[in-house]
Amino acid sequence: METTQAFGLAHLWAQSDAVIRAVALILLLMSIMSWYLILVRGLRQLRTRRHAGAIEAFWTAPNLDAGLKRLSDQAPDSSFEALAQQGAAAAQHLRRHPANETLGSKLDTDEVITRALRKSIALSTAGLESGMTVLASIGSTAPFVGLFGTVWGIYHALVNISVSGMATLDKVAGPVGEALIMTAFGLFVAIPAVLAYNAVTRANRVELSELDAFAHDLQAWFSTGARIAPVSVQAANDRSPAISTAPANGAA
Fold it and tell me: Taking the model in full, what pTM does it have?
């Protein structure tokens, strides 16, 4: 019983060298960074879900200023608010600077608004992808860092055993088992990072698709003064001409 209690994390840290301790600190730092990003992204996704009705509230507003106010109230500091504000700023710039002989004013109105919306989407995409590289790196490298700590720990334990000259099972199993803790620690760091990366990537893809659809509607509204009405598949089929399957006259 005393021998069993002598082994564990405390004993591993006490008898380990600088390499094992450095690996453990690196994995601890990776874990802190990973969970920080997971919490930040999780809170952002919760805020994004609360903004689900903001786009519809924008389109039901009586005018552009009221729509922007609704976005600012219901989805503050969101990608959708930034997109609408950028499009409105581009349209206002065109109104303040009508066409003249300067090079910049010769751009088509639709092109100016489209570029402004694309710039906003690019900035939003960069914000959504911030920290994703860190999560992916932690998820892919943490197991190997832990494995390196295990290999080094086993080597260190075997050297100590060979020096002492006592290679019995109880003398080998303890140090080797402690070294394997580093592999478990690496997996403990990597698995949440990989799962979070996959979940955040899917959420970002959904948000970018919604943002792209909102940008198309904004571009149409600023260009024509009307939003492109969404059409369901059933409505499209109802409006399409029916294809007759009856045989032609004279056919057998």
Answer: 0.73
